[in-house]
Amino acid sequence: MTGKRDHLYFELLQEGVRYAVEAAAQLQNDLEHFDASVLNQQIDTMHELEHQADLTKHQAMEKLIREFITPLEREDILGLTSAIDDVTDSIEDVLLRLYMFNIHELRPDALEFSRIVAQCCAALQDLMDEFPHFRKSKTIREKIIEINHLEEIGDRLYTEAMHRLHTERPDAVEILSWTTIYDRFEKCCDMCEHVADSVELVILKNS
């Protein structure tokens, strides 16, 4: 049974995921209404979300330094906190690459990818909301499996997007740019799965 002080750790993990969800929602909205001329402003907004996520991570780390007894092993809390922060970082990275490569027209796969990323983050939030009750939960494993499933969809989308890119054979600069962007999209899904796998490991260690 966790006390009020212990529960704060779970609340910080949930807060970190909420920033990832917000970042994914912004990315999806920015791509659905894509306008290269406002990418700079959109990056500023995204960076503020990433900054807030960093502050949440540091708050958890400071709490770990101060306290001797924690509800989970310190390395597990630290690993989860960092993994969640990596999700938000990877989402920001997509927007940065669109700006860096001066993309003015999206490929259709980008929109589909942004929806999958948003679904992954929503599923991750669902998982983390259940995480404080993992010792008694009857649904948490299903939530982990759902994230694994969405990551597999992301993998298939990545494979097909790369196939279309090289079948259509645009110029070399476009191939290089979109190869990197697709890599970043896939990384978003991978980071969500990494959090889910880390949660599963914590459950196994504490069962």
From TrEMBL:
InterPro entries named in the record: PhoU-like_sf, Put_Phosphate_transp_reg, UPF0111_domain
Domain of life: Bacteria
Family: Belongs to the UPF0111 family.
Name assigned to this protein: Phosphate transport regulator
Annotated source species: Hungatella effluvii
